[in-house]
Design goal:
Blueprint (H helix, E strand, L loop, with lengths): L25 H12 L18 H6 L16 H4 L18 H12 L48 E3 L8 E3 L5 E14 L5 E17 L5 E8 L3 E8 L5 E8 L5 E4 L5 E5 L5 E5 L5 E5 L6 E6 L5 E6 L4 E5 L5 E5 L6 E6 L5 E6 L3 E6 L5 E6 L5 E6 L5 E5 L4 E4 L5 E4 L7 E6 L5 E6 L3 E6 L5 E6 L5 H119 L4 H59 L2 H14 L1 H39 L9 E3 L10
Parallel strand pairs: 1-28
Antiparallel strand pairs: 2-3, 3-4, 4-5, 5-6, 6-7, 8-9, 9-10, 10-11, 12-13, 13-14, 14-15, 16-17, 17-18, 18-19, 20-21, 21-22, 22-23, 24-25, 25-26, 26-27
Helix pairs in contact: 1-4, 5-6, 5-7, 5-8
Length: 722
């Protein structure tokens, strides 16, 4: 009984009738096509535009427009591009395109060197050297920002759009940049790994893409595929410039698997030819051919350190090879059906493989033994990937994505996919799982809880429609942002008001405490001042008493001195009178003079006594005034003391209620504070969503004018052996 496996469903066998379908020649295969469609206008009898295609020699001479054939370069040969309708003027001029199978034969013939006949020697033009090899293989994250496509380099409008999405046969995640690559019809679709945003596409004109791999430094992307039964190519792109670096492949069938070595010196490819070819990236020459497999080579991958190459085939055969020499390193036996995927652990010491037998197996590289294996997906496991943290993710026919530890213990399992799971990868930071299924659906899952974050199909709509959709998202995101801004402003205002209320309550308590302290200090100060004032009264009274007590004494002395003065004045007067009566008596005159002299000291004593009385009276008055003043001051101080002593009693009852108001104010502030973080988180989320969709719109708006989308037919599954 035959089974269908989606991995190779797009390998369609074109109906080309050739003498040798894999090695066409001009005489046997191309000339019959030209005779049927071209020779009537470009033959020996008629040469429109000076071109004759009736002989190979004539073709090589070209026409009025120059050369039309360049060996090994179909895309630079107008003989092919005009008939394939990829360049103007399209031929035949009637607009009816010649059958695709015949165009494929012509392309393969040119690609293989444009041989004239089976006996002709083909001299392939020397390819220019490509200097992308690395002297050393760096471990861990490279320095600097991870490489992302430069602005304006990606094709934002998909050049091809199928009637419906095709099966996701190829998917790869950049090791360090947030990019996921998905294979499509004649294009590589690039998505933002963090949010599923469609970034743009890289052209792959060779047909269906069956394999995608990023280089270990994430600067390069390798796409491999082709047309089933016709041709296969592997194309290497610079992820920043989005330009083709080189392409390799002399295959006569579509490539099924490919990878670039860690040192970027080799590209290994596998195909239905059962061969593994290892090409030099420098010049595209074949470095090694490995002929060990007995069936289609369906999976291969270089180890992260670049030392080994693991390969698997449709018959369940697995091998590990020395990458530099292509010598066999291990034969890995245990799978019983097609190998669908291989993935190296980041230390290069372990290899994971998935198979149509439903199992995932782990292999160690010291002895090549299968140290773990478990039934992962009923009906068949289609993909397995190692994360940097050592976990593994897988998907398969049971339509789920699962994550495992290295003991094979199930960690997480997603909800059911829309169809058979085909591919799964981890994002650059291991936080997301991205899966693709048979129906062409892409899903982003949160790795921690396998919550689905984004879901879409792998068939991007034209640019104009995406712009329109993103503009609507911008309007919606802007409305949500404004709503969240208003909500946050309200919450923040409530919180600020609540905090202000707490501060006001605390300030009131502090104020009352300060007022109480000041009032208590004022009581102390006024008490001290009253005591000082009262203490000043007794000395002042004593002073008054002292001068009051001295009044009798000084008055007595004054009276005594008055009597003495009166007596002396009487003696002097009597002596003067006597001298007047006897002016001639010298003795009387002398006595009168002496009596007058004797009066002076007595007069002075009297004056002094009199002054003493006046001084004592003045001192008594001053002391009395001072006593009155001190007494008044003491009375005033006592009055102030009594008034000030009332204030603490007025303040103290206010403190307890003010303190009691703080706790509910703080509780309210705490409740308001709890609302701030969620409101801010909601605002930040709304801002981030707005920024994201606005950035998407800004990136899409400056894009080149929208080109017409060329519909391609939906893929048709082909049966393969069980």
């Amino acid at each position: 009984m035959q089974r269908l496996f989606p991995l190779f469903a797009l390998m369609l066998l074109p109906a080309v009738v050739c003498a040798d379908a894999k090695n066409p020649t001009y005489d046997d295969d191309v000339l019959p096509i030209l005779k049927q469609h071209c020779v009537s206008c470009h033959g020996n009898d008629k040469q429109k535009s000076g071109l004759n295609v009736a002989t190979l020699a004539a073709i090589k001479q070209g026409g009025a427009g120059g050369d039309v054939l360049k060996a090994a370069a179909p895309d630079k040969s107008r003989l092919y591009t005009l008939t394939a309708h990829t360049e103007e003027p399209k031929m035949p001029p009637s607009g009816t395109k010649i059958p695709d199978a015949q165009i494929a034969t012509m392309k393969l013939w040119i690609d293989q060197g444009a041989r004239e006949n089976s006996g002709a020697k083909v001299v392939m033009p020397e390819k220019p050297k490509v200097n992308i090899g690395l002297a050393n293989v760096a471990k861990g994250k490279p320095d600097g920002a991870p490489p992302m496509p430069q602005a304006g380099k990606l094709k934002l409008d998909p050049p091809y759009q199928a009637k419906r999405p095709g099966a996701v046969l190829a998917m790869a995640a950049s090791p360090w940049a947030p990019i996921v690559a998905v294979g499509g019809q004649k294009q590589v679709l690039l998505y933002q790994a963090d949010n599923g945003d469609y970034l743009g596409s890289l052209p792959f004109e060779h047909g269906q893409i069956n394999s995608l791999k990023f280089s270990r430094n994430s600067k390069l992307l390798l796409a491999a595929g082709g047309k089933g039964g016709a041709s296969g190519k592997a194309v290497l792109y610079n992820i920043e410039t989005c330009e083709k670096v080189t392409e390799v492949g002399i295959e006569t069938d579509a490539l099924l698997s490919a990878d670039i070595s860690a040192d970027q010196k080799f590209i290994a490819v596998g195909s239905p030819s059962k061969l593994i070819r290892i090409y030099n990236t420098a010049d595209g020459t074949v470095a090694h051919e490995i002929k060990k497999h007995t069936d289609w080579v369906t999976a291969l991958e270089f180890s992260p350190d670049g030392v080994l190459l693991a390969t698997g085939d449709r018959n369940g055969g697995m091998f590990v090879w020395e990458a530099a020499t292509a010598r066999e390193f291990h034969t890995l036996r245990n799978h019983t059906a097609m190998i669908t995927d291989v993935s190296w652990r980041y230390d290069s010491n372990a290899l994971a493989s998935s198979s149509e037998d439903g199992t995932v197996r782990l292999w160690e590289m010291e002895n090549g033994s299968n140290f773990k294996g478990w039934a992962a997906h009923g009906g068949g496991a289609a993909s397995v990937r190692y994360a940097k943290n050592g976990l593994l993710a897988s998907t398969g026919r049971d339509r789920v994505v699962k994550s495992w530890d290295q003991n094979g213990t199930l960690q997480k399992q997603t909800a059911a996919l829309a169809d058979l799971g085909l591919r799964v990868v981890y994002s650059q930071d291991d936080t997301k799982l991205i899966s693709g299924d048979w129906a062409g659906n892409l899903s982003w899952w949160n790795a921690a809880d396998v919550k689905q974050l984004v879901s879409m199909d792998s068939n991007p709509v034209p640019l104009a429609q995406r712009i329109q959709a993103v503009e609507a998202l911008v309007v919606d995101a802007d409305a949500k942002l404004k709503q969240q801004q208003a909500a946050f402003t309200g919450v923040e205002t409530n919180h600020k008001n609540a905090v202000a209320a707490v501060q006001a309550a605390e300030a009131r308590v502090n104020q009352l405490n300060a007022e109480l302290a000041a009032a208590n200090k004022a009581v102390t100060d006024t008490t001290n001042a009253a005591n000082v004032a009262k203490n000043a009264v007794p000395p002042a009274k004593a002073e008054v008493d002292k001068f009051t007590a001295a009044v009798p004494n000084v008055m007595k002395i004054e009276a005594e001195k008055q009597l003495a003065l009166n007596a002396a004045n009487k003696v002097a007067l009597d002596a003067t009178e006597a001298a007047k009566k006897a002016p001639a008596d010298m003795k009387l005159a002398e006595a009168a003079k002496k009596a007058a002299e004797a009066v002076k000291p007595i007069q002075a004593a009297f004056d002094a006594a009199k002054k003493a009385v006046a001084d004592n009276a003045a001192a008594l008055k001053a002391a009395t005034d001072k006593l009155n003043s001190v007494t008044k001051a003491a009375n005033d101080a006592v009055g102030v003391q009594a008034e000030v002593a009332k204030k603490p009693g007025l303040i103290l009852p206010q403190i307890a209620p003010a303190q009691a108001a703080i706790a509910p104010a703080k509780a309210n502030a705490d409740n308001q504070a709890k609302a701030v973080a969620p409101a801010k988180a909601a605002l930040d989320l709304a801002q981030a969503e707005f920024n994201m969709v606005k950035a998407r719109l800004d990136r899409l708006k400056p894009a080149a004018p929208v080109v017409a989308v060329v519909p391609t037919p939906a893929p048709v599954p082909m049966p393969i052996k069980k």
